[in-house]
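U., I forgot to send this yesterday:
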Amino acid sequence: MPENYNNKHHDLKRKKWHDYGKRGIYMLTVNIDGKGDSNRKERHTLLGTLAGKYDAPKGTPDYPHIVLSEFGKIVRDIIIPKIHKYNPNVQIWKTCIMPDHIHLIVCVETDFEGKRNLGTVVSGFKGGCSRAYYQIQEGLPATGENDDKDSGALRQRNPKLVPQFEEGYNDRILSGRGQLKNWQNYLSDNPRRLAVKRAHRNFFTVVNNFNVLDMDCQIIGNRFLLDIPNKVAVIVHRKDTNDEFQCKKQEWLDCGEAGGVIVSAAISPREKEVMHEAIERGYCIIYLKVNGFPNLYKPCKRDFDICAEGRLLEICPFGYNPFYNNQDLRKRCLKLNKLAEDIVKKV
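Result:
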């Protein structure tokens, strides 16, 4: 167990197996917390506002972007650069400031000294943001520093004037080839994704206890795909020869071409092949998932865009378990294949 496992920065969001005092590359997220605040709605635009149109071409003035507030500009121009100033071993590789949260890709180049770790860096950053916000409210120079001349006033100030971040922070640890590029693309695409979600709110809301064939399921996406009568279940058996598979694949894709819906858990490589081609051709699909969705879940990468287009529905009959580790995967896959067949026959 890492020696700093029980340091103050540790909470339920941390990876128990990782030592946050060591060098590494991370994507960090800190969120503004408006719980219990009568001005909660305003706090969700504390750092800026979304501008542009979700379907505007990239490179045009209307392409989705964030217009930073005065506070957001201070965070970008003054507070974030102080991370490296006070932590020379920490480099900020990329930043994305959204209306109510901040993403940072950081590189910890060398191990921290003493009791310092990534958590103390994040804590210092959040404290600097809070002080800068107070200074803006008081008409003081927004340095983010806890200067002697204003530190007493800060302690006496109504705490609701200070942006209260959610406790802790979220992190992802770089561990695989191509992951950094995906992170960078995700941060660059974040304003557009927010614009898409706001334009199609119903498609990006997790619905719990949705009835599918008398089963309480979690769903996200276009639930009306269930109402389309022409559906096929994509299930490939090990015994299927290549000729048999190619014949079935053509039948399944013909259904999609005719406006039908392709339903599958996409478990085997050949099932994934069919679903991939269906997506590329612009067909409607229903994915059956082995694990459910947390409340803020949204489809990732390519699936995000087809969800916005109304071509995707994801269904899970098992609920969400953050600690699921595939211990009963075969049993779940068999149940999902049966559900795919029943959706085609009975819904």
